[in-house]
Write a structure and sequence with these properties.
Layout lengths: L6 H13 L6 H4 L55 H14 L12 H29 L5 H60 L2 H7 L1 H14 L6 H24 L9 H28 L2 H23 L1 H6 L4 H27 L2 H7 L3 H12 L7 H18 L26 H11 L12
Helix pairs in contact: 3-16, 4-12, 4-14, 5-9, 5-10, 5-12, 7-9, 7-13, 8-15, 9-13
Protein name: DUF914-domain-containing protein
Membrane topology: Multi-pass membrane protein
Family: Belongs to the SLC35F solute transporter family.
Length: 456
């Protein structure tokens, strides 16, 4: 099995362990277990091993969580059950939830499925809005990509840092910064540079090439999730991703037929290389952020992303945007566009963790393929574009691809993360996580007492 011998062990020992990406216990990572007062009476090391597959093929057995629906009233009594009360409750809740997955369409009847689709479309609209505001700014010769994004990171820090300080306290927050700040610095750097090089790609290459290169982000996410997060995709999930990409291909083909692909471009080779680099950085940062938000509270992740993003983006703007800044147009209209751009991008960053928790980095990137469709809808109203007959087909294909992807999952979808262990013991019980769903289900069924403090 991959991950136990050979080259994977070398990667695990020499790369993942020093970076802190290897599976560790919650206490080793410094995460606070969220237990009720009744549950804190007895603490012991849970006897659970990490699921090496994550997404099970149809002919594989489901993992044993130490409790079944039939024996739920005696959770923890079995010798194989987790010894920690919270882990036992999570195990029972997961077992009870996954017992509902009797049909291929079981997940479609859950709130999570519709929430992932709805939030994904909101994110697509946010991206479309930021692109529109950037077009307005470029139309008045205000090309300051690093500087205009600086305000987004500053707003993230202003919103989420006070929440983090209130929840964790200054001392604990500083302790996290000293211990894991370098990891958040890497995440912020990947995110900032992904934004920057993607914008540069649109300067030098044409629209068709830049959008085609965005597919590379999905490839990066799938490959990195497979090797580093030990996610195992079923054939239907791969098929769903390919159907979505096919829908995007139809959209790009219609642009090409209409001659709206942006022409020859200023420097196609340079632009394509920038686009490829930007898509790669996006893919890595998306996987890294999914790993973070499954283990840490959202307010902590976004606080550090904002703080380090301001520092990195500020330096970059001072170096590369000075000439553009001097020649840019500055008036009330430009200020309004910058405010709109900042608010939409801040909303985008604040909602992304929900999709990464309830879904995955792959689901997140596939959802964003619909941004081009919404861009055309807005373009018809703002820039006078006409809708080609192939656009609705493209949109339907992308949605169909998403539906196909989810037919292969359980009732928990992608919220159950393989790198968190069978009972998600290394994860945080935050909004959208499988761990919180399991705890709530256990209490709903009377399998565990007390209440759980819910983290964001």
């Amino acid at each position: 099995m991959f991950g136990e011998t050979g080259s994977w062990q070398t990667i695990h020992d020499r790369i993942l362990t020093p970076l802190g990406l290897a599976t560790e216990s919650a206490d080793d990572q410094g995460y606070q277990l969220l237990s009720s007062a009744d549950d804190m009476a007895a603490q012991a090391e849970p006897d659970a091993t990490a699921n090496k597959h994550g997404f099970f093929s149809p002919d594989e057995d489901e993992p044993s969580y130490g409790a079944t629906a039939e024996s739920s009233n005696t959770v923890g009594a079995s010798p194989s059950a987790p010894s920690d009360p919270e882990d036992a409750a999570v195990a029972a809740g997961l077992s009870h939830l996954e017992a509902r997955s009797k049909h291929w369409y079981s997940y479609f009847g859950t709130v999570d499925f519709w929430a992932v689709i709805a939030i994904g479309q909101i994110l697509s609209l946010c991206i479309t809005a930021t692109n529109t505001f950037s077009s307005f700014l470029a139309g008045v010769n205000t090309n300051i990509p690093a500087f205009q994004t600086l305000f987004n990171y500053a707003l993230l820090a202003l919103i989420w840092l006070p929440i983090a300080l209130y929840k964790q306290g200054p001392r604990q927050f500083l302790s996290v910064a000293l211990r894991d700040g370098w990891k958040y610095l890497i995440l912020s750097f990947l995110d900032v540079e992904g934004n920057y090089f993607t914008v540069l790609a649109y300067r030098y290459t044409n629209l068709l090439s830049a959008q085609l290169l965005n597919f590379w982000a999905i490839v990066c996410v799938v490959v990195l999730s497979f090797f580093f997060l030990r996610v195992r995709y079923r054939p239907l999930q791969i098929a769903g991703i390919l159907i979505c990409c096919g829908g995007m291909g139809v959209l790009l083909a219609s642009d090409h037929l209409q001659g709206t692909n942006g022409g020859a471009g200023v420097d196609m080779l340079r632009g394509d290389l920038f686009g490829l680099l930007g898509a790669s950085l996006y893919g890595v940062s998306n996987v890294f952020e999914e790993w973070f938000v499954s283990k840490r509270p959202v307010y902590e992740v976004l606080s550090f992303l904002g703080i380090f993003g301001v520092c990195i983006n500020g330096v970059q703007a001072a170096i590369f945007d000075r000439a553009s800044f001097a020649s840019a147009t500055w008036d009330g209209q430009v200020a309004g566009w910058l405010v709109g751009y900042t608010l939409c991008l801040c909303l985008f960053y604040s909602l992304v963790p929900l999709v990464l928790r309830m879904g995955s980095a792959a689901v997140f990137d596939v959802n964003l393929l619909t941004a081009n469709f919404w861009g055309v809808i807005i373009g018809t109203r703002v820039f006078g574009y006409t809708i080609h007959w192939m656009y609705p087909i493209a949109f339907v294909l992308i949605i169909l691809g998403l539906v196909t992807y989810f037919t292969a999952g359980s009732i928990l979808g992608d919220s159950k993360k393989p790198w968190l262990g069978d009972n998600q013991k290394d994860g945080v019980a935050g909004i959208g996580t499988a761990k919180l769903k399991a705890l709530n289900e256990a209490r709903k069924q009377g399998l565990a007492g007390g209440t759980t403090e819910q983290q964001v």
